[in-house]
UniProtKB/TrEMBL annotation:
Domain of life: Bacteria
Keywords: Oxidoreductase
Gene3D superfamilies: Dihydrodipicolinate Reductase, domain 2, NAD(P)-binding Rossmann-like Domain
Lineage of source species: Bacteria, Bacillati, Actinomycetota, Actinomycetes, Pseudonocardiales
Name of the protein: Dehydrogenase
GFO/IDH/MocA-like oxidoreductase domain sequence ranges: 162-240
InterPro entries: Gfo/Idh/MocA-like_OxRdtase_N, Gfo/Idh/MocA_oxidrdct_glycsds, GFO_IDH_MocA-like_dom, NAD(P)-bd_dom_sf
Organism: Prauserella muralis
Length: 295
């Protein structure tokens, strides 16, 4: 791009401060130009750190930027994202996209109608080692099953323990999108939730059916005293057994790769991406089906 993309950041929590703000500020194709939250003092403090403008309202921020990055709860994101798209702003969206399928579809509809670019912050998917792993699986073929385990104590710690939406959505809404997205990318589109069980301690076990003949299992929790967090993916079939873990401290690198793709989409006029807003709708439907099946 000839000029940096002016990006406004919505939210100033831990994820906004440690991932979005430094990533947008450091990337050569973007500039963190404005910040808005419902707490003006918090927005002002974050904006000052990056020589950005603290806006008094969401509408004021929209008037100052080319794109909007969201770091707010899904219930808040859905409505604001629709307004951003309708204002012609490209959007970087957090997972889950919304709290209901209907709201997720409204966001996707607004994005499509406006013709703006969109990406979902599925950080694991943008990592180079993940892309290489998926490319290798696609080239080999013949995979019949897989499994994913995302086991952490994130909600027991200080960083995310004070996040109300994470307590409300639980592991399914917080880390479920990451796990389902990668199993879907590895084995083919998830077409059905065959079984789903949630314990009183919010440990999820899910059995998935994929297009074709593959099936997979997923275990999720954010309330076990695990250190470090266990993130493991595996597939198996005619070509043997292949695994993928999450590289430590790779979030910043993955977010940079996301911004690479985002800037390239806008510069080229491309609007389709494996992790665009429509991916968010697909994942929202899987979350809803898990809840339905689990009862």
């Amino acid at each position: 791009m000839d000029t940096q993309l002016r990006v406004g950041l919505i939210g100033a929590g831990s994820w906004a401060r440690t991932v979005h703000a430094p990533g947008l500020s450091d990337h050569p194709g973007t500039a963190l130009s404005a910040v808005w939250t419902r707490r003006e003092d918090v927005a002002a403090a974050l904006a000052e750190d990056y020589a950005a403008r603290a806006c008094a309202s969401f509408d004021e921020l929209l008037s100052e930027v080319d794109a909007v990055a969201f770091a707010v709860p899904p219930s808040v994101q859905a409505g604001l994202a629709v307004r951003a798209a309708e204002a012609g702003k490209h959007v970087i969206l957090e997972k889950p996209l919304a709290t209901t399928v209907a709201d997720a579809e409204r966001v996707a509809g607004a994005v499509a109608e406006a013709g703006v670019a969109s990406l979902l912050v599925l950080t694991l998917r943008y990592a180079l080692r993940t892309r290489e792993w998926l490319d290798g699986l696609a080239a080999a073929g013949g995979w019949t099953g897989g499994s994913a385990r995302w086991l952490s104590g994130a909600l027991l710690g200080e960083t995310y323990g004070n996040s109300p939406w994470r307590h409300t959505e639980g592991a399914l809404g917080d880390v479920g999108p990451h796990a389902f997205d990668l199993m879907d990318a590895a084995l083919g589109e998830i077409t059905a939730v065959l079984a789903a069980h949630r314990t009183e301690g919010d440990l999820w076990h899910v059995l998935l059916e994929h297009a074709g003949t593959a099936t997979s299992t997923v275990a999720l929790t954010t309330r076990l005293p695990m250190r470090p967090t266990v993130v493991e993916f595996a597939v198996y079939g005619e070509q043997g057994y292949r695994t993928l873990g999450r590289a430590p401290n790779a979030t910043a690198e993955s977010y940079t790769a996301l911004l690479d793709d985002f800037a390239a989409m806008i510069a080229s006029g491309t609007r389709k991406h494996p992790c665009d807003v429509h991916r968010g709708v697909h994942l929202q439907r899987i979350l809803a089906e898990c809840l339905r099946v689990a009862g």
